[in-house]
Every structure is written in structure tokens, then in C-alpha cells.
Amino acid sequence: MGNFTSYNSLAFFDVETISLDTMSGVDTLLSISIIKDYRGGDTKRLDLKIKMTDVKRSRASSEALKVNMYSDEEWQDAVELEDAIPDIVRMLYDCPIVAHNISFDIGHLTSSFEACGWTKNKNWSRNIEDEISKKLFTFGRPLIDTYSLAWLYTDSDRQNLNELRSMYNISTDRAHAADTDTEDCRTIFYNIIGATHPSLRE
């Protein structure tokens, strides 16, 4: 159904958040994981926990914090989102990006970046460092949703991540951790399209 030779790189990502809904003026991110595969077989990875601010703590859903395994101890080395945005933007720039239920992740990234004073670039300049210097961000394209791919190309009655994990014999340990969800989204994507990135071959 597909192969890796039609693009130079492909980024998979997942975010975990303090709530299901975005919040105007509030960074809602708890963690983000990005795996970027390159055509030649190289892979880059970025895994970040994002600092819990007083504002975020006051607005957070206790259920979301529990599901996402938040604890002050585990997040003691978390980074400020403002400091992390340039690296996130570089990883998600100028390539197709893949996530499960991608509109959720993109929505939280966008609103959280804007809460830090960044602006979504309306005109893709193709000069990432110039954009970053102006606190502009552009996400790659197209946006690919493994939920939609599963609905179109699998026999599963449900398309949630755990159902697809079961279909492809993927462990559910540490579900709702951004790094695990990104890895599993990546595996599910390659299974659905019938391709394997060179870095995954034995």
C-alpha cells in the first residue's frame, strides 16, 4: 500500500495534557514525544516532560493527571515549554506528521505555543531558523491520522489506540505515556500501510 521512498522524513508524535480541552492562554502540555524517521534509515527522537506551572495545576483535571501518570517527583526535571518550542518546531517542520487522533494533539500544541507568545505562520517560509527567531511556528504536512487510516484500512470495529494495539499484538503497558503512545502509533502506521522503516528491520 505504501513505501518509504516517497518522502525524505516522517515524524510521529504524541502529547499528554492536563485536560481533554484546550484552554485559551494556558499551556496544557504535560509531555511530548516525537520520533522522526529519515528515508535512509536514520531516526531522531525527542522526549520531553513539560513543567507544571501554578496556572496549569489550578486548571488541571485530576483524572487527566492520573491517566497520564503525572507526579511531582517524575516531573522534577521537566523543562519550560518556552525553552522547548524551538526543538519541537524543528522536529515537526517540513515533513508529513503522524499521530493518533491528530486533531487533539495539534490543537493542544497550537494553543500551548500561542500561550507562550508564539504565532502560527500563515505563509510557510521554508526558513525554519528565521521563523524561530520571530517566534513563528509551522507544522509539517500533510497531517496523517492513524485513527482515520485504521477506519479505512483495517477490519477493527473500533479504532482507539488500545484496540489497535490488540490487533497488532502490542503491549498496553504504559499506555497514555507520550513516548509509548508515539512508538505504538509508529508501529501501527507501518503495519497499516504495509511498509517498514529501515531502522525497524532486524
Can I get a quick summary?
The protein is an alpha/beta fold.
Blueprint of the fold:
Blueprint: E1 9-17, E2 29-38, E3 43-49, H1 54-59, H2 62-67, H3 81-91, E4 97-99, H4 102-115, E5 119-120, H5 128-133, E6 136-137, E7 143-145, H6 146-153, H7 161-167, H8 178-193
Parallel strand pairs: 1-4, 4-7, 5-6
Antiparallel strand pairs: 1-2, 2-3
Report on this model:
- The chain has a domain at 10-142: Nucleotidyltransferase, domain 5, CATH 3.30.420.10.
- It is an alpha/beta fold and 202 residues long.
- The longest helix is centred in the C-terminal third of the chain and has 16 residues, at 178-193.
- 37% of the residues lie in helices and 18% in strands.
- The relative contact order is 0.19.
- Helix 6 runs parallel beside helix 8 (178-193).
